[in-house]
Write a structure and sequence with these properties.
single chain, 71 residues, 0% strand
């Protein structure tokens, strides 16, 4: 399982030493990049979940069809 990423402590300490405006600008940029990376991960997980659910349904229906056909 891939974990979602967030800001590290060292990044926050570096931001604390900068001017407020610069720190906020960099913080927003970092958060935006992290959000985009996490969104890609979540989208990929959702897509794979739908594929696995669909294939499981097809397998279950095939099993039921085989049982009905052999009865």
């Amino acid at each position: 399982m891939a974990k979602f990423v967030d800001l590290e402590g060292s990044a926050l300490r570096c931001l604390a030493e900068q001017a407020e405006e610069d720190a906020l600008r960099r913080l927003i940029g970092l958060r935006r990049k992290i959000y985009e990376d996490n969104k890609r991960t979540a989208d990929r997980k959702a897509r794979l979940w739908w594929w696995s659910s669909s294939l499981l349904t097809v397998g279950l229906l095939s099993s039921v069809l085989c049982i009905v056909h052999t009865s």
